[in-house]
Amino acid sequence: MKKATDATFKEDKFEIHHGFRIRLIETTAGKRYQVDLGRKSGKHVRKTCKTKDAAIGWAQKKSIEAGNKGIAALRFSDEQKTDAVEALFLLKEYGVNLRAAAKFYIKHHQKVDSSNGFGPLVEQYIQKKERDMKRGDLRPRSFSEIKKWLKPCKEAFEHMAVDAVEPKDIDVFLDEQGIQGTSRANLKRYLGGFYNWAMREGKATANPVKRTRQTVMESHTPGIYTPKEVKAIFKQAEELHPDLVPYLALAFFAGVRPEEITRLGWKDVDLNLGEIHIRADQSKTRSARIVTMPENLKAWLLKYRKKDGKIFPYSATTLKRWRVKVYQKAEAPSIQDGARHTFATFCFALEGLDETLHRLGHTDSKMLQRHYKGLAKNRKAQAQSYFQIKPATAGKVVQIKKSKAA
């Protein structure tokens, strides 16, 4: 029986050189020679070379390296040998070898300071974002979100070097915290932003967030209000907090985002043309747009309009308190982004995809199709009823006449 060492490329497609098997692989691009080093840390280690000589040379190099490591091991003192045996005994229960244990120790015991520490660098990043906010380059809400999402990350990895945090560390942290879906995606987005900054500053060599597990996003149908519920909401708002009505009208009948409404002033509402002018600095997407008002929205704004100032000149706390009270009195459920979802559904039913896309300020039709197309189906009659919701008494449009030239 022929020994493996007697194998040839011609007869067996492999040969043994310097203790390693070299296999001949024939492809459309030509011959390749693959050196098999066996398994290392549970993984098969192979090297493919273009020529036979290159493969033999690489096998020789690895053979010498293995021999040197073996000689070094023979030079261990009795104390070192005893330590190694005891360490292996302690690690046996965990299925970990000495190399893995040493790497883990080094990773978690690096010297950490302001130049490479995860915690100190997060602080520097937040300070930088605060300066951006004060210059007007970052909105206060965005700054608050950055601080909120990076806080748990800082607590988890504060004592580690920024480059020591690996993708699996982030995945394990998110799993242990039970962070899933949209929250998981948000945290990863802000953590990824931090690492991108650290790389630009030369503080990190890679962004581990890019190699974390893909976030599973559950698709769900947005909740919406019925015309009956919306009527009840406006009835209670008029009775309890009339100053809340313009805010609700823009949300329910124009689909304007909550944060955009709080930035709008009465000067941005043109009742003569029936338009809402949302400037780039007011828009969430930083893109200006003009929203056409349906007739019922115009009626609500005419009744409650003011000469100038903010449409909703109160704090976020007041907004929340008033809205909760109004919805409770109206016996209407609390639905996240419910007003915008309701508008999108009924606008889609009457006006179609393109007009709804424009009014919402969206650039991607896929999300709109996915969430609202099914909801809008067979709701045309309901949509017509929805856009007929008006105040019992309405104001009048005052035409602004241009002065004649002298």
Automatic annotation (TrEMBL):
One Pfam family this sequence matches: Phage_integrase
SUPFAM superfamilies from the entry? DNA breaking-rejoining enzymes
Origin, by domain of life? Answer: Bacteria
* TM spans (from-to): none
Q: Boundaries of each Tyr recombinase domain copy?
A: 220-385
Write out the coiled-coil annotation as residue ranges.
none
- Kindly state which keywords UniProt assigns to this record, in alphabetical order: DNA recombination, DNA-binding
For this chain's UniProt record, which GO biological process terms are given? DNA integration; DNA recombination
What GO molecular function annotations does the UniProt record carry, in alphabetical order?
DNA binding
Fetch the InterPro entries from UniProt.
Answer: DNA_brk_join_enz, Integrase-like_cat_sf, Integrase_catalytic, Integrase_recombinase_N, Tyrosine_recombinase_XerCD
Tell me the protein family, please: Belongs to the 'phage' integrase family.
**Descriptive protein name:** Tyrosine-type recombinase/integrase
